[in-house]
Write a structure and sequence with these properties.
Chain B: This is Molybdopterin oxidoreductase. Chain B: Pfam families: Fer4_11. Chain B: It comes from Roseivirga spongicola. Chain B: InterPro entries: 4Fe4S_Fe-S-bd, TAT_signal, TAT_var_transloc_signal_dom. Chain B: Residues 769-799, 836-867, 868-897 form the 4Fe-4S ferredoxin-type domain. The complex is a heterodimer of chains A (454) and B (1040). Chain A has a domain at 18-92 and 112-132 and 230-446. Chain A is built from 18 helices and no strands. Chain A has helices spanning 18-30, 35-61, 76-87, 89-100, 110-130, 135-141, 159-192, 195-204, 212-245, 257-283, 292-323, 326-337, 341-353, 361-364, 367-394, 409-432, 438-442, 448-453. The radius of gyration of chain A is 23 Å and the shape is globular. Chain B has 1040 residues and is an alpha/beta fold. Among the domains of chain B are: 12-47, no CATH class; 216-384, Dimethylsulfoxide Reductase, domain 2, CATH 3.40.228; 570-709, Barwin-like endoglucanases; 725-1031, Alpha-Beta Plaits, CATH 3.30.70.20. In chain B, 27% of the residues lie in helices and 20% in strands. In chain B, strands 5-4-16-15-14-6-7 form a 7-stranded mixed beta sheet, sandwiched between helices. Chain B has a 6-stranded mixed β-barrel with strand order 20-25-22-24-23-28. The termini of chain B are far apart. Classes of the chains: A mainly alpha (454), B alpha/beta (1040).
């Protein structure tokens, strides 16, 4: 790998040696689970089970368990879907785009953020299935499978079908990319383990031998996958935004949606990475690997994407006014002044105003402030999707059909279910997989000569 | 087999006809089974194995047997019944004092749909929500399955024996021998004859007639004016000016279907005929009629009398008649204009009044006499027979009962313990009668209080007749054998009168004697009878009678008015009314009517106190999304807790409350829905009055309540792309008045939205089905919504689910309020005016040619047909609801739950028990949970129409295929047809240019300037066209 420029601040602090890296990271995998982990994992599983009740009730009784109605056909379901998919964006961006741009600071965080991506996409995928009236059929009828129904085929005009392709492609590429990065680290764990653990990690490491040729191939495949994954970062949320942009509903029918959605996705993804990182960092004592420097850099990404999102909001308004289309104008008037004004203003506050605080160095380097703001951003991004979906639908063209959407506990329950699923997966990952990419991080640990100079 | 002459024989024994063989051969098993039953020692093991083998095989075979769902084929097929081929029978809907000639559609012997009979010169094929819904009542599980005695089942023989013996005993008594038959208006002459025979047998018997909603004021008013107690026929089709003082003639007054049909004729306009009637309405509650008026003035109930007197005087001044004194109506907007116009259109005008005060009706008659309307718009030669109830007789009956003069009461198909003004007095006095009988079809409030119940057939199960107006007969024939052990009421009366004749014979004989002889066209009675059965209608013509108005009665009446109405009273006044869906509440157990969205309030499953916005502000009640409060309504010494509904158009100082609710013994569906308003009916001049002029107060309780409305937003926000309307004056100058033409800027010019499109468009080479809806004719009555529900197996979801905004109606009537001068900002647009203009817009799937729903479905479950229909494939639908979201008209309906065979939806009677399911239309799928549905443009009707034509080797004729909504519509607002047929009514209406070779549906040129697409700017290009609403009013003077 390349030599780090000496003018730059070291990315790993605390004078860690290569051996320290192995020890620090493997310790978590090899040791007994801590009480804290057990507690967190337990809570996640309980959340998952409680949420499962809502999922079962929905599938058993019908979508009527939710608060949807004749006017508002989507609400929390698709809000949550878009929200989780958005969160999933950061991982690929960090691992693929930053790899291509040779941003080495990504190395400490890419593993966990990629894992987050995978789990977020899994959570997101629950909703397109669960929101169907007949998921037992829809789960496979939406796929272009050869069937016995004669010439019956899916409708390639439907943005929902594009979603199926976009999400499944994104998920497969992310999964392969993530797993590939894990292989050398699994080998490290395998080499240190014995007994059944050795067998399991041995199998997971796919016979990694650490030879120069292997490393060379590893590097090449990583680059190729990064190249493949990069357009996906842009495409997935672009296609998700088509669900809305290609429709006729005022507030949905907007050409600005693709870039706006992508920026929003990165925005929320980084916020979620920060939330998780700050917790992991504290729990696993990884302060030397995930430094204030990392946090600051991510906060800068949040300012940039947050500002893009803010500009998008304002542009939407301008265009609504400029278009001269009364329905469009009313849709945006209704967002601000209608019965869901609180959702709109929550979104504006959380997404546009709050990230601007990161202009202050003191705030963007403060762990507490970052943690709070990262959560606020994700609340804001949830509201953004809620505002787009519900406030556009609830008052569209014919005033006779205008209605309100009130969520039920089952709406909340299914959302809770995905939280349970996400954190159960994440805590399992944190315990049994190396949370930091050891192999890559070792490449940026300062050499001994520099160490003495420092 | 015949060619085969060989004989096969089993063995030499058969060939030789061995006696032993012949004997054994007769039994099923010619030889004994080779098992030793005695348990002989030699073959025990083998027998055991054989038995075990047989046992296992038998047991497993028995287990294999699939559950048998019995589909029993006809052993002898009835001549007229072909599976899957419907039969139609002409019959007559009868409910209390109402009757409508109908055609009943049956499938495999089950009545499944009721429609208006086009041969009737009265209703001309129109129907109403109540008529459409009545077929479901046939399959109501709450109906009695047989006669009852003291609340327990008995048999007819016992009942007849006991009733007859007690009647004989009572009739023979010296004291208190009165026998009373209490009924609503009986329209059947043959039933009346049967009752007459009963009275002849028991001379102490008297027949008392009352109506829940009394028209006694009119009959009595006519008696005082002309000396004949009758209700004349009205002909709204000839009017130029109609003034209605509180008469809801399009919704509930006397014969609303007939009047809607007639009135609609005066509202039909086109380029060549730019004239229409003008309609003034003076009323307290916003009624269906008032909402269709050109000028509507809210008045207090206490103003009715003085207002009519003032109008009388205004006309009298012009006619040179003496003025009368009748109190002071104060300054009533539009009154002078109305009087002037009435006078200008003498003989082509009509004044009607909903008041039940005979004095007021006397003045109304005077006005119509001075205007020369008798003989033109009012026909006294053929008086109608509806609502002949006598309020005085009813009060006297209760007095007689109370004083012990009456020992036997027979309630003939009526429920006075619930729906009469004397309900509470009657309930108390009923115990004094020793014999009480009811013929109710269910254990209703009255039936539960009597000793014997002799349940009547449903009207679809019986032979009967009805004389709707003098000389206009309508025959009822059964379209199904009686489902239960019920008996036709006139037959019961004949039985009790000691006659053994079957009612059918009795009816036929009566017709032979009475009506067959009155005509001379047909010489054979059988032919006459067959034709009457086929047509359902016999019209013999009324009698010529001359009446002279007694002007002396007018001044007497005016004096009475002067005493009874005090305009100056500052207290709150209560105006009771009927909803056009629920009516008098007799069909309260019909979930289709309960869930029918009220045309005005858009509320379901409730009645409520309608209050003005000003009063709501005073009480501090704000109504949003159906959330409101319960208030305490005090009327005299009675108080009741009732939710309020803020009703634009409600006259300040008044509150309104619908009767027909608060049933306690209607059945599972109707019990406990709303509150009972009948106890508030009071007496005025001896007649029941629906208006309470004093002693009304309302206090808040602070308790929250939710009214299930299907529409909670009241205005159309000034959106011209939705509602396009103009005044008649504007229309006269420009046939395209009120039209809104969207244009989109494209490359330096403004073009029509249809010019910018990515759609390649559809070409329909065979048929191109389309529909027009004339918003000028639509009165909002909602008959179409119930017709659609019956035709298309639409589930009832119940109040909770309506509150969740999940009603399933495929066609809905959007009702918008608007002020004459639209407000500027958006917040003000959301508020309806105090006395708003009302627009009704039936809304269903628009069958877009560029359908936004079709593109977004991931599984292609909704697609376009080659004939212009947007189709739903239920079994392909996975329920993503994307189509519903992307539907700009929000007409798609999702099956949120399983509505059939689900105890949670047990109010959905047509899908949750075997009896109720008989009403389902077998041509329409009952939709599964989780799929989307919507208006299919009655595709089953289109298909059967095409099939019938194909079998005859021709193309379908225009008018042969009708939509359920279209055929129900009493005002002919809906026209369906083929746009590819240049001669079809719809092509003519739209003045569509003939389709050129290769022309796409979206390119068709429509020349009718009133025709427009809702949301034209979206270029979804619907196949449903709307015609602009034209109001016959002067724009400036709209604010009352």
């Amino acid at each position: 790998m390349q030599v780090t420029s000496s003018v730059r601040k070291p990315l790993i602090t605390g004078g860690k040696t290569v051996h320290d890296v192995t020890e620090d990271i493997c310790k978590q995998v090899e040791g007994k689970p801590s009480k804290l982990w057990l507690m967190a994992f337990g809570i996640s599983v309980v959340t998952l089970l409680i949420g499962l009740v809502a999922v079962v009730a929905t599938v058993w009784e019908g979508i009527g368990m939710w608060g949807l109605n004749k006017t508002v056909g989507w609400a929390w379901d698709i809000t949550n879907f878009v929200w989780w998919v958005g969160i999933g964006h950061a991982g690929t961006l960090i691992s693929a785009v930053l790899l291509l741009f040779r941003q080495k600071w990504r190395m400490a965080i890419n593993r966990a953020s990629e894992a987050m991506t995978i789990f977020a996409v899994i959570c997101a995928a629950q909703f397109p299935i669960l929101h169907m009236g007949r998921p037992w059929l829809g789960a496979y009828w939406a796929l272009p499978l050869p069937n016995t129904f004669g010439s019956l085929w899916v409708n390639f005009n439907s943005p929902l079908l594009w979603d199926v392709f976009a999400i499944s492609t994104y998920f497969s590429v992310s999964l392969v990319f993530w797993y590939l990065g894990l292989v050398p680290d699994f080998a490290t764990i395998r080499d240190r383990a014995d007994g059944i653990r050795k067998k399991i990690y041995g199998a997971l490491s796919l016979g990694w031998d650490g030879a120069a040729k292997t490393w060379s191939r590893y590097e090449s495949v990583s680059l190729i996958l990064a190249g493949l994954a990069t357009p996906l970062v842009l495409s997935v949320h672009t296609i998700v935004s088509f669900d809305f942009a290609t429709s006729v509903i005022p507030g949905w029918h907007t050409t600005i949606f693709p870039p706006y959605f992508v920026a929003g996705a990165i925005f929320s993804g980084f916020a979620m990475v920060l939330t998780l990182m700050l917790v992991t960092r504290a729990v696993f004592k990884l302060q030397d690997y995930i430094t204030i420097e990392h946090i600051e850099l991510m906060n800068i990404v949040i300012i940039v994407t947050g500002s893009i999102v803010g500009i998008a909001y304002i542009t939407e308004f301008f265009i609504a006014w400029y278009s001269g289309v009364p329905a469009e104008q009313y849709a945006f008037y209704n967002r601000m002044q209608g019965p869901y004004w609180w959702a709109y203003w929550s979104m504006m506050t959380c997404n546009v105003i709050s990230p601007q605080l990161f202009w202050f160095k003191k705030i963007r380097t403060s762990i507490a402030a970052t943690f709070i703001l990262s959560i606020i951003v994700n609340i804001g991004m949830w509201f953004e999707r809620f505002v787009i979906i519900v406030t556009s639908l609830h008052r569209d063209f014919l005033p006779s059909s205008w209605a309100m959407f009130y969520p039920t506990i089952y709406d909340a329950g299914v959302y809770l279910f995905t939280f349970g699923l996400f954190f159960t997966c994440f805590f399992l990952f944190a315990k049994f997989f190396p949370v930091i990419n050891m192999a890559e991080v070792k490449s940026i640990v300062k050499s001994s000569s520099e160490k003495t100079a420092a | 087999m015949k060619e085969n002459q060989k004989t096969y024989w089993k063995g030499i024994e058969q060939l030789s006809n061995d006696a032993d063989f012949v004997k054994k051969n007769e039994s099923e098993f010619p030889e004994y089974l080779p098992i030793s039953e005695t348990g002989g020692e030699s073959s025990n093991r083998r027998d055991f194995l054989k038995l075990m083998g047989f046992g296992i095989a038998a047991a497993s075979l028995a287990a294999c047997e699939a559950p048998v769902r019995k589909a029993i084929p006809y052993l002898n097929k009835p001549v007229d019944v072909d599976p899957s081929v419907p039969n139609y029978y002409a019959s007559t809907y009868v409910n209390g004092g109402d009757a409508v000639s109908v055609v009943v559609k049956t499938r495999e012997g089950r009545p499944i749909k009721v429609e208006g009979n086009k041969y009737s010169s009265i209703t001309k094929g129109g129907s109403s929500a109540q008529v459409e819904a009545s077929v479901l009542s046939l399959y109501d599980k709450e109906r009695l399955v047989g006669p009852m005695k003291d609340g327990a089942e008995t048999d007819w023989a016992t009942l007849d024996k006991e009733v007859t013996s007690q009647l004989n005993k009572i009739a023979a008594q010296a004291q208190g021998s009165g026998i009373r038959i209490v009924s609503n208006t009986v329209l059947s002459p043959t039933t009346k004859k049967a009752v007459g025979e009963f009275i002849a047998k028991y001379p102490t018997a008297e027949h008392i007639t009352y109506d829940p909603i009394s028209s006694y004021g009119i009959t009595e008013g006519n008696r005082r004016s002309f000396g004949a107690a009758m209700i004349p026929s009205y002909d709204f089709s000839k009017v130029k000016t109609v003034v209605s003082v509180g008469a809801d003639f399009l919704g509930t007054w006397i014969s609303p279907i007939e009047f809607s049909k007639q009135f609609a004729q005066t509202r039909k306009i086109n380029e060549h005929h730019r004239e229409m009637s003008r309609h003034y309405q003076f009323e307290s509650n916003l009624s269906l009629t008032g909402s269709n008026a050109d000028y509507r003035t809210p008045i207090l109930p206490s103003q009715v009398g003085p207002l009519v007197a003032a109008m009388y005087n205004a006309i009298a001044a012009k006619a040179g008649q003496a003025k009368v004194s009748g109190g002071n109506a104060g300054d009533v907007a539009h009154l002078t204009a109305a009087a002037n116009e009435l006078w200008a259109n003498r003989g082509k005008s009509l004044v009607v009044c909903g008041s039940n005060d005979p004095a007021v009706q006397v003045l109304i008659n005077g006005i119509n006499t001075m205007l020369g309307n008798y003989g033109t718009t009012i026909d006294t030669t053929a008086p109608v027979n509806y609502r002949q109830g006598d309020d005085m007789a009813m009060s006297n009956f209760v007095k007689d009962l109370n004083s012990g003069r009456v020992a036997a009461v027979i309630f003939l198909n009526c429920n006075p313990l619930y729906n009469s003004a004397e309900a509470s007095a009657l309930t108390a006095a009923l115990a004094k009668a020793s014999l009480t009988v009811s013929t109710s079809d269910r254990m209703d409030e009255t039936a539960a209080a009597v000793k014997y119940v002799a349940p009547d057939h449903h009207y679809l199960e019986q032979w009967n007749d009805a004389e709707l107006r003098e000389g206009h007969l309508s025959l009822s024939q059964p379209s199904i054998a009686p489902l239960f052990s019920t008996r036709q009421t006139p037959e019961s009366f004949l039985k009790w009168a000691g006659q053994t004749v079957e009612y059918y014979t009795y009816l036929q004989n009566n017709w032979k004697e009475s009506y067959f002889t009155q005509q001379s066209e047909i010489s054979s009675f059988q032919t006459f009878w067959d034709k009457a059965l086929y047509d359902g209608i016999v019209e013999l013509g009324g009698s010529e009678k001359a009446f002279t108005y007694d002007f002396a009665a007018a001044s007497v009446a005016a004096t009475s008015i002067g005493q009874n109405y005090k305009t100056q009273g500052s207290g709150l006044q209560l105006a009771l009314y009927q909803k056009s869906g629920m009516g008098d509440g007799s069909q309260a157990n019909n979930p289709w009517l309960q869930e029918m969205s009220d045309p005005i309030s858009k509320a379901t499953w409730d009645n409520y106190l309608t209050i003005s916005l000003a009063m709501a502000n005073e009480l501090g009640i704000k109504m949003t999304e159906g959330e409101t409060q319960l208030v305490n309504l005090m009327v005299g010494d009675q108080s009741i807790e009732v939710p309020v509904l803020v009703q634009p158009g409600q006259a300040p100082g008044t509150v309104g409350l619908a009767v027909g609710y608060g049933r306690t013994k209607a059945g599972k569906v109707g019990n406990g829905v709303g509150v009972n308003a009948y106890p508030f009916i009071t007496k005025l001049n001896g007649a029941n009055t629906m208006d309470v002029l004093a002693g009304v107060s309302v206090t808040t309780t602070g308790k929250a309540y939710r009214i299930a409305q299907t529409q909670t937003h009241q205005t159309y926000m000034g959106r011209e792309n939705v509602i396009q309307e103009a005044t008649l004056d504007e229309y006269k100058k420009d046939a395209g008045a009120g039209r809104w033409h969207p244009h989109i800027y494209k490359e330096g010019e403004f073009v029509k939205p249809s010019k910018i499109t990515l759609w390649s468009g559809h070409e329909y080479n065979n048929h191109h089905w389309a529909m027009t809806i004339d918003m000028n004719s639509c009165t909002g009555c909602s008959a179409c919504t119930v017709a659609c529900q019956a035709e298309n197996n639409i589930p009832v979801v119940g109040k909770e689910e309506v509150l969740n905004r999940r009603e399933m109606a495929w066609i809905r009537i959007d009702r918008y309020y608007s002020a004459a001068n639209p407000a500027g900002n958006k917040k003000e647009l959301e508020e309806a005016a105090a006395n708003p203009e009302v627009t009704f817009q039936p809304m269903m799937c628009q069958h877009c040619n560029n359908a936004p729903c079709e593109t977004v479905c991931p599984v292609a479950a909704t697609t376009h047909s080659t004939e212009g229909l947007n189709q739903m494939t239920y079994n392909r639908c996975i329920g993503t609801r994307y189509c519903a979201n992307n539907c700009p008209y929000k007409v798609r309906r999702f099956n949120w739950f399983k509505y059939h065979d689900n105890t949670q939806f047990d109010k959905n009677l047509s899908m949750n028990n075997d009896l109720g399911k008989m009403v389902l239309n077998p041509d329409v799928t009952v939709r599964a949970r989780g799929v989307m549905e919507k208006c299919s443009m009655c595709v089953q009707r289109i298909q059967s129409g095409k099939l019938a034509a194909k079998r005859e080797g021709r193309r379908p004729v225009d008018g042969e295929i009708n939509m359920a909504c279209e055929s129900a519509c009493p005002s002919d607002a809906i026209t369906f047809g083929d746009l590819n047929d240049p001669k079809s009514k719809i092509s003519q209406l739209l003045q569509i240019e003939e389709k050129k070779e290769g022309e796409k549906a979206t390119e068709r040129v429509v020349n009718e300037e009133r025709a427009y697409h809702v949301l034209e700017e979206l270029n979804v290009n619907p196949n449903i066209w709307y015609m602009t609403k034209i109001r016959n009013k002067v724009k400036e003077s709209t604010e009352a």
